[in-house]
Specification:
The protein is an all-alpha fold. It has helices at 3-36, 40-46, 59-67, 70-101, 107-116, 126-135, 142-166, 171-178, 183-194, 196-211, 215-220, 229-234, 244-274.
């Protein structure tokens, strides 16, 4: 067999494997959409065996806005996750920049401590978080939940930003200081724009981490007016009755922000993930 034929077979096998893996990822999404456009009667009678709907209708996507407080759920999630993501990026950027530019006693131990905090299961942190928020009367508030989201995202995001800033030559800081810039000004005007792809990648990570979070929100937010989208979707059914079409509709709507992020920031995300992989 010639070398060209071997390469063609290798390429065909690679595309076949990639196609199969892509199908495994897309198939649940397709099933979710097909369930969302069915009536509950059709779902019950077919018991999920009929893949294609007999009557294709988008009425369920309109109905859930009237049947459930979806606007409230979306607003709470956007405010809580948006504010926590901004706080995470500000804190992680400043901390990562300081760690990449300054040497001090205990720096290695501090970096190791940041990683150690990510080793503990999240369920171990519920009681301490609850007691701390109770002391400051922040239970059932978007502020309290945003603080919690910020606290457990900062360590890993700091490590990410530390890696990105290490890839930026320190000579740029030195040149800026020679021209009269202080540390904060050189950070804001010189270094931060060069770390744009890293900031975008870290922002996406923090946003997705908090947008999909359920456990802390279910414990810390018990009032209907303050519940986030993940709690609202989970409460659409009970032990005796689950409206699968409404549940799938809400799940699709909840995934729209993340899909938009990947659609418009895909290039920056890939660039941010690969930046710093090669150190010059």
């Amino acid at each position: 067999m010639s070398k060209k034929k071997k390469q063609l077979l290798l390429d065909a096998g690679s595309y076949a494997v990639l196609g199969f893996l892509s199908l495994m990822v897309i198939l649940p999404l397709i099933w979710m959409f097909l369930t969302a456009v069915k009536s509950m009667e059709e779902i019950t009678l077919s018991r999920g065996l009929d893949v294609l709907p007999k009557i294709f209708s988008l009425e369920n996507f309109i109905k859930i806005w009237d049947s459930y407080p979806m606007v409230t759920y979306f607003k709470n999630s956007l405010i809580t996750v948006g504010s926590s993501t901004i706080l995470v990026i500000v804190c992680a950027s400043l901390c990562g920049y300081g760690l990449s530019r300054f040497e001090f006693k205990g720096k290695a131990s501090f970096l190791g401590f940041l990683l150690v905090t990510q080793m503990f299961p999240a369920v171990m942190k519920i009681v301490p978080y609850y007691k701390i928020l109770s002391m400051f009367d922040l239970i059932n508030t978007r502020t309290g939940l945003a603080v919690v989201y910020t606290s457990f995202c900062i360590p890993f995001c700091t490590w990410l930003m530390y890696g990105y800033f290490r890839g930026i030559p320190t000579g740029l800081d030195e040149a800026a200081r020679i021209d009269g810039c202080g540390w904060l000004r050189s950070f804001w005007e010189i270094v931060l724009p060069l770390a744009r792809s890293g900031i975008i990648a870290t922002t996406i990570y923090a946003f997705l981490q908090n947008w999909n979070e359920y456990m802390f929100a279910s414990v810390l937010m018990t009032r209907d007016a303050n519940k986030t989208l993940t709690i609202g979707i989970a409460q659409m059914g009970d032990a005796y009755n689950i409206l699968w079409n409404d549940l799938m509709c809400a799940s699709i709507l909840a995934s729209i922000p993340t899909l938009l992020i990947f659609l418009f920031l895909q290039k920056q995300l890939i660039s941010g993930m690969t930046s710093g992989a090669v150190k010059e």
